[in-house]
Every structure is written in structure tokens, then in C-alpha cells.
């Protein structure tokens, strides 16, 4: 395997995350108000950054293993299966949403049937994933340049429309309901063991994790502040749709380009991780694990599951909380009892607190379904 650069590794992390955030966050947190929305996304970001560092520390003691195999090693067979299932729920939910989103966007741009462009998108993105980590990292660098430019331009264009009435509005219960999508917006923990394998240096990998999590956190906060601050409860499911009403054809193209770039970057990172996850847990060949990673979402899409934010909420709540919160915390505590040479020494009190918060979010989410 060719070694990754710090820029490529950071790009994979950023790209894996920002797809979900740009597409789902403003709508999911619109009833909370912009200030509470920003608070939710920052607190969630800091917690997931912490557990991402847990994953990195654990992975550095058993390099070359996927996140599911690491969990199995330290938390037993049941822990490994639970991690595998959590990642799979999260990955398939995301990939279905991205196929559906790309179909809607490309169909609108090109005037071609959504089903046809869905297949074309799926084929191109899945081929990049099949070509491996290095090719994916290079593709992510290019796509991230487009994505970050589009996000910054969108924020600048919308900021002037923020109203004081929307800024003052806040609803704490609505903020809690948006936590599932907020968690989904930081779902790149499964990529970290793979990046460490490509970087071959835990210190460089630590830098990549900080860049890869703090960059989306800042952009998410500004994006939420701009769009919910400007449109409040009227924020549409695809937030950037409002750009056409404000800026005509320029706004329309920008409003479609941004989520399309976001979908592409996130699809690559998540599919790549799911492919590695399946290969290690099921002992499949490269071709078989690739097909098992990318084929089911396309089949389910054509079977009729074409919703978007609901898929992100379910995946983030019941996949993300377990996979990005509870299991990494338990693994880290288990490994820390045996290992003394940790790259970062995080106080036990902070570790226990993060685990408790994720557990409370999970219980609250279950209760909200009743």
C-alpha cells in the first residue's frame, strides 16, 4: 500500500463527515434555533473528537485491524459483532441516502431520470472505492477543494439574511431531537484504523484526526448559524435549495453543487471503511467485500427506500451512539488498564463522563420513540 500524506488523510476524514452535515444538519436543528443548534454541533463534535482519539490510541496498539476486529479483540466476540452491526447500519443508511440525494441533484441538473443517474453515480463512486485508499485520498483532496469552496461561498451569501428574531429563538427539546443527525455528521471513526495503516505514524495520524474533526466542526457551526439564522423553521430539508430564491441561477447551481460534492466525498469514505469492515469480519476477498459494501444500498434504493433525513437520524442514533460513543470508550478503558505507553494521556474522569453522556443520549433516543 502506498503511504498517505497528512493532507490526504485529513481530506478523507473531512470528506467522510461533511457530506452528512451539509445535507442534514440545518433541517434537523431548525426548530432548536441557530444558537442552540451551534451549541449542539460543537459539543457533539468535541465528544466525537475525543472518542476518535480513543479509537486511534487503541488502533495504534494493534495496527492493521479494522474497527470491528479491534472491538472483538478487546471486548470479545459480542462486542465485535455489535460494532460490525453498528457500522453496517450506519454505512448502509448513509449510502442509501447519498444515492438518493445524488439522483435528485443530477436529475435536476441534467434533466435525466433519477434512476439512471443514480446508477451512473453509484458506478463512478464505487469504482473509486474499489481502487483503494490512496486513490480515494487523492479523489477526496480534489472533491474537498470544491466542497469547502462551495460551503464558504454559501455561508457568505446567506449571512446577510440572518434575522434578529431567528437568532433569539431557542427550543431545548428540539435541540435534543437533533442530536442523532449531529452525531451522524461526525461518523468517520471507522476510517481511522485504515488511515493509521496508510500513514504508518501515530503522531501524524493524531494531527489528521484533529484537522479532520475541527474543520467540519467550524464549518458546521457557521453553516447552521447562517441558514437557521436566516430561514428559521422554514429551513428546507436540503438547506441550499433556498439559494436559488435569493440569487437565481447562480444560487441554483451553487445550491446543487455543494451537496453533490458533499455526497461524493462522504460516499467514498464510508464505502471504503465498510468494505474493509466486511473483509476482516467475514473473511471475504477484495471483490466480494467491495460488492457487499456497495451493492446492497443500490438494491435497497431501487426497492423504494428513498428518504433522507430520517435515514440519517436513525443511522446516527442507533448506529452512531454505539459505534462512535459507547464502544470506543469501553475499548479505551480496557486497553488503558494494560498499556502504559499511550500517545495521549486523557484523564479517566473525562473518559467516564463521555461514556455516560453517550449512554444518556442513547436512552433518551429510545424513549423518544415510545
TrEMBL record:
Organism field: Thermococcus argininiproducens
Keywords per UniProt: Cell inner membrane, Cell membrane, Membrane, Transmembrane, Transmembrane helix, Transport
Residue spans crossing the bilayer: 12-29, 35-59, 80-99, 105-129, 141-162, 174-196, 208-233, 253-275, 287-305, 311-333, 345-367
Database matches in InterPro entries: Amino_acid_transport_2
Biological process terms in GO annotation: amino acid transmembrane transport
Membrane topology: Multi-pass membrane protein
Record has Transmembrane helix as a keyword: yes
A Pfam family: Trp_Tyr_perm
Subcellular location: Cell inner membrane
Protein name: GerAB/ArcD/ProY family transporter
Gene Ontology CC, one term: plasma membrane
Principal place of residence: membrane
Keyword Cell inner membrane among UniProt keywords: yes
PANTHER family the UniProt entry points to: OS07G0662800 PROTEIN, TRYPTOPHAN OR TYROSINE TRANSPORTER PROTEIN
Amino acid at each position: 500500500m502506498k503511504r498517505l500524506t497528512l493532507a490526504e488523510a485529513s481530506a478523507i476524514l473531512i470528506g467522510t463527515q461533511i457530506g452528512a452535515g451539509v445535507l442534514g444538519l440545518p433541517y434537523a436543528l431548525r426548530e432548536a434555533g441557530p444558537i442552540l443548534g451551534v451549541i449542539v454541533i460543537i459539543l457533539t463534535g468535541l465528544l466525537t473528537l475525543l472518542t476518535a482519539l480513543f479509537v486511534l490510541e487503541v488502533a495504534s496498539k494493534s495496527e492493521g485491524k479494522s474497527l470491528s476486529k479491534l472491538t472483538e479483540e478487546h471486548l470479545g466476540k459480542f462486542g465485535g459483532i455489535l460494532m460490525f452491526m453498528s457500522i453496517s447500519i450506519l454505512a448502509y443508511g448513509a449510502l442509501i441516502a447519498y444515492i438518493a440525494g445524488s439522483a435528485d441533484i443530477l436529475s435536476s441538473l441534467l434533466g435525466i431520470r433519477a434512476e439512471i443517474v443514480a446508477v451512473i453515480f453509484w458506478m463512478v463512486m464505487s469504482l473509486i472505492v474499489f481502487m483503494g485508499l490512496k486513490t480515494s485520498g487523492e479523489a477526496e483532496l480534489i472533491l474537498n477543494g470544491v466542497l469547502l469552496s462551495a460551503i464558504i461561498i454559501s455561508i457568505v451569501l446567506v449571512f446577510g439574511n440572518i434575522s434578529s428574531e431567528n437568532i433569539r429563538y431557542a427550543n431545548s427539546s428540539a435541540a435534543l431531537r437533533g442530536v442523532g443527525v449531529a452525531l451522524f455528521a461526525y461518523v468517520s471513526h471507522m476510517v481511522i484504523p485504515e488511515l493509521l495503516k496508510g500513514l504508518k505514524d501515530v503522531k501524524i495520524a493524531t494531527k489528521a484526526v484533529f484537522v479532520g474533526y475541527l474543520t467540519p466542526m467550524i464549518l458546521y457551526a457557521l453553516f447552521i448559524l447562517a441558514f437557521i439564522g436566516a430561514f428559521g423553521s422554514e429551513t428546507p430539508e436540503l438547506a441550499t435549495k433556498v439559494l436559488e430564491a435569493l440569487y437565481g441561477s447562480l444560487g441554483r447551481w451553487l445550491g446543487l453543487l455543494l451537496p453533490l460534492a458533499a455526497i461524493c466525498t462522504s460516499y467514498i469514505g464510508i464505502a471504503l471503511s465498510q468494505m474493509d469492515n466486511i473483509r476482516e469480519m467475514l473473511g471475504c476477498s477484495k471483490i466480494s467485500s467491495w460488492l457487499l459494501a456497495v451493492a446492497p444500498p443500490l438494491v435497497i434504493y431501487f426497492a423504494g427506500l428513498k428518504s433522507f433525513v430520517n435515514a440519517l437520524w436513525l443511522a446516527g442514533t442507533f448506529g452512531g451512539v454505539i459505534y462512535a460513543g459507547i464502544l470506543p470508550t469501553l475499548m479505551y478503558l480496557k486497553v488503558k488498564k494494560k498499556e502504559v505507553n499511550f500517545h495521549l494521556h486523557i484523564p479517566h474522569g473525562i473518559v467516564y463522563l463521555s461514556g455516560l453522556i453517550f449512554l444518556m443520549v442513547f436512552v433518551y433516543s429510545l424513549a423518544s420513540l415510545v
